[in-house]
Design goal:
The chain is α+β, with helices and mostly antiparallel strands. A hairpin with a 5-residue loop joins strand 2 (46-53) and strand 3. The longest helix is centred in the first third of the chain and has 15 residues, at 28-42. It starts with 6 loop residues before the first strand and ends in an 11-residue tail after the last strand. The chain has a single domain (9-124), classed as S-adenosylmethionine decarboxylase. It contains 2 helices and 6 strands, in the order E-H-E-E-E-E-H-E. A 6-stranded antiparallel β-sheet has the order 2-3-4-5-1-6, with helices on one face. The chain has helices at 28-42, 94-104; strands at 7-18, 46-53, 59-65, 68-75, 80-87, 109-119. The mean pLDDT is 91.
Amino acid sequence: MISFNQSVIGKHVIIDLSGCDPEIIRDRGYILTILKRAAQVARVTVVGQVEHHFSPEGYSAVLVLEESHLSIHTWPEHNYVSLDLYSCNLDTDFAAVEAFLAEKFRAQWVVSKLLERKFIPVKLCVKAEL
């Protein structure tokens, strides 16, 4: 296996919040407000948003950021929220965002994984011959 130096271009946290207050995660207005406040906590800039409400319940929203995106998906029937925050600002405070969201949705359990998004500089890439 050939090893290359990889450059970190962003970080991506995946957060699972379980045992959330179902009434809170049914409130679309509250969820969107909290999502926007989470962007402030992360010190990222919102440039757009998309939302969708599912029937009979559930909600998804994506905030498009100058730095990438912040998304949320709710399952009130399971007291569960999943979130993704991807930022190319390497100084983003992912731990503060996670703590803020867990508190606001009253999560009893939090599981998260922080990924470094990397690329191999093009001049180092070698095409495989078929």
